[in-house]
């Protein structure tokens, strides 16, 4: 029979191991998100299923990265179960928002104490979706 202390110790080791695995996949996902955002490219594709020929920039880049880096492949394919790969659309969006917040913070720090102006323009495209451009000068 396993004592409560031994069970608790095993649970902590298992939990820390899972945290490390998720941290690795999160690190690689964030690197891909920052690159795609820096290039101004879209993240998602129309069909992100396993059998799709083009799953979108994020998942295609991840597949390309896994082919060239064994550590990345291990982090996504073996270390994490299917529901902890940090590849869902929600995770992609949250990581992109984190990148945007980091950029905004740097801009605010650089602008501290300086005067600036903002130009905002908005228009609708043919599908009646509104497009907004913001220029900070």
In short:
The protein is mainly alpha-helical.
Description:
This protein is mostly helical and 137 residues long. It has helices at 4-39, 57-68, 70-78, 89-111; strands at 118-124, 130-136. A two-stranded antiparallel ribbon has the order 1-2. The chain starts with a helix and ends with a strand.
Label the structural class: mainly alpha
Query: Which consecutive residue ranges, at least 5 long each, have pLDDT under 50?
Result: 1-14
Shape: globular
Q: What would you report as the Rg, rounded to the nearest angstrom?
A: 21 Å
Mean pLDDT: 78
Distance between the termini: 69 Å
Layout of SSEs?
Blueprint (H helix, E strand, L loop, with lengths): L3 H36 L17 H12 L1 H9 L10 H23 L6 E7 L5 E7 L1
Antiparallel strand pairs: 1-2
Task: List the keywords.
2 strands, two-stranded antiparallel sheet, mainly alpha, 137 residues
């Amino acid at each position: 029979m396993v004592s409560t202390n031994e069970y608790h110790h095993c649970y902590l080791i298992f939990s820390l191991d899972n945290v490390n695995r998720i941290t690795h996949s999160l690190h690689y996902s964030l690197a891909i998100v920052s690159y795609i955002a820096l290039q101004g490219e879209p993240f998602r594709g129309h069909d992100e299923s396993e059998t799709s020929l083009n799953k979108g920039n994020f998942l295609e880049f991840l597949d390309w990265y896994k082919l060239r880096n064994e550590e990345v492949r291990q982090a996504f394919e073996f270390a994490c179960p299917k529901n902890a790969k940090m590849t869902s659309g929600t995770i992609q969006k949250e990581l992109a928002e984190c990148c945007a917040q980091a950029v905004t913070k740097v801009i605010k720090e650089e602008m501290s104490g300086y005067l600036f102006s903002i130009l905002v323009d908005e228009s609708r495209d043919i599908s009646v979706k509104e497009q907004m451009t913001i220029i900070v000068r």
